[in-house]
Amino acid sequence: MIMERIAVRFFLGFVLSTFLWEAAVAHGGVVQEDDLCVIKVNYLRAHFKIYQPRVSGHEQFCEDLPAASESVFIMEYQHDALKSMPIDFRIIRDVTGKGRFARMEDVEQLGDLDGVTVFYQPAMIEPDVFTVMHEFAEEGEFIGIVSATQLDTRKVYAAVFPFEVGFTGVGYWPFFIAVLVLLQLQYLLMSGRLKGWIKRRSPGVAAGILLCALLIAPVAADEGGLRVSYSTPAGPPEINRIHSWILHLESAEGMPVENATIEVSGGMPEHDHGLPTQPRVTEELGNGDYRLDGMRFHMRGYWEITLTVGTAEGASVIVIPLQL
Amino acid sequence: MKSTFLKAGGAVAVAAVIVIGWHVRPLAAPPWTDAEINVLRSLSLASLPELPPDPSNAVADNPDAAAFGERLFFDPRLSANGGISCATCHQPVRHFTDGLPKGQAIGTSKRNTPSIVGSAYSPWLYWDGRRDSQWAQALSPLEDPNEHGSSRLEVVAVVAGDEAYRASYEALFGEFGNISGDDPVALNTAFANVGKAIAAFERTLLPAASRFDDYVAALNTGDVKEQETLFSDDEVQGLRLFIGKANCTQCHNGPLFTNNEFHNTGVLSSPGELPDKGRAIGVREVLADPFNCFGDYSDDPKRQCAELTFVRTGPELIGAVRTPSLRNVEMTSPYMQKGQVATLAEVLRHYNEAPDAMIGHNEAKPLALGTRERRQLETFLKTLTAADAVRQFDSM
């Protein structure tokens, strides 16, 4: 029994070190993290997904694609740096012979890539989201190469990801899943977290409830001793009409607060979206009154307007709830 | 053996009763609550406010400008091949749309042709809101190589070269400046004026009342018999879903059934095209447009431009497009910004599923509506069909 456990640990340790070694030499690639497919271009990360809208509709793929069809490759940046970096995107036929284990070094050894390139998007700066499209003419094994250039240092970061188009079998997936499960188990066993987690479970639940209670505690418009009220000179707010608010700031003692800086944001928490405009305080009217212009609501329902108020005493955040 | 038969027979009978009952059960619609009636009134044309002023266009409400603009709107000489007018895609008989996935003019345009009716109420024009007034919008297709394929130089030359046009133009805007192209400001001014005349015409196009509006009027008078004549049970149920469970009025609100805002609803990309980035690009374009509200060609001396001043930017706009009006939606297929969706039934299926967006974030949530409910919604949407657009100055 003990011997078995040692053997398993030895095996896992071996797999782990191999894996780490791989990760250390690679420049970057596509990995599945939790439920998210991520491309790592060196330290720069983006949510990576591929669609085949004509054959698979809204289904997302991380690497392998079911058919030779119109394929849309999408990178949603997790690092803002990528928004301003020229990024190029190349797909080559896999002639490295390494298949799924192909790395940057293998690609570099090929020398001139033009002969094996099936798609090339020259470097472009995409401030919102990076998208390219290629219609595969045939099934087979391919390698994607993404490189991003840092403009000031001219440093080029690259990610390489081998993938199959029109894969039929299950490929290496069961092997990878098994390795991942074992690795996770190994980690949990070695770090003692599994035991700890079980032990801590009961107090943990209590702590969780406490945390939730703190988070949902009512937030009134008077945090930090500051009181805020507002009026709408053009009548009650109506949907789809741009209008102004007058904000009134008072200290806890009822004295008007002047010379405050006020930043405004907001949205509908139930719908995960913000305001349709970017309202701003445009004028201080005196006596603690501030003119807030550019307010507009585009739906009925529950809104929250968040004011970040900076005064000589410091900054406070005030949330104004609003049911329209 | 016998009891098995009996059991099976009983089960079949119960199933039959359920199935038949489901289809024929009386659907006596419960009366609307006061809150619901308020929502219904807010959707009725009777609630349509006065046309919002357009201070950037000095001739916006001038009937002579509208009459001049109408002739320009239908004039194919304002195109590279002499065959394309605004009305090629914005066809009056189709509520100013064309029935195609994407506009077909000199080439294929980028997106589905939206209606013009009621567009004077929108702070933004185009699916991606890349223009901020009807007149700035009217200029853009004239120079789009896939649409009119003309140029400001040629357009202004056609107007200045036609005796009747020249007279109309000069009565409204004064004499042409140096429109030879040597003086870009003079040329741009004349070009902008052409847009302002077209906009004065477009501004007069308002939706006609539909059966839905009549139904709300009958609710207001409390005439139950009239209500029953106007709306079937399915239409009432569809309307109830529309303002309730189906969340439609989150975006399709107000008398024009649109908030004119930008939303990502996760529609699939059009064949052969990358996913549409929508407002994320449109907002940059409108801010850079020389004919925008801040620009030199706006007639508003105060440059109030509240919408442009407080315009929203940021990642929420990725893949977001402007909510279209649902008035006459039955007559304006295909749907969505690229005309990707052919039928209303498919549109409703899409919103029912609310799949993850290819780019950005789908704001809609799955609705879990049954087939019958979707059919009722579709039935209701068809009550928004009306006669051709009403010309406001006809009734004046």
Describe it.
The complex is a heterodimer of chains A (324) and B (396). With 324 residues, chain A is of the alpha+beta class. Chain A folds into two domains: 27-188, Sandwich (Immunoglobulin-like), CATH 2.60.40; 223-323, Immunoglobulin-like (Sandwich). Chain A contains five helices and 18 strands. Chain A has helices at residues 2-25, 53-56, 104-109, 173-191, 193-215; strands at 30-33, 36-41, 44-51, 60-61, 70-77, 87-93, 117-124, 130-135, 140-149, 156-165, 227-231, 243-250, 261-268, 273-274, 280-286, 289-295, 302-311, 314-323. Chain B has 396 residues and is mainly alpha-helical. A two-stranded antiparallel ribbon of chain B has the order 1-4. Chain B has a two-stranded antiparallel sheet with strand order 2-3. Classes of the chains: A alpha+beta (324), B mainly alpha (396). Chains A and B meet through β5, β8 and β14 of A and α13 of B.
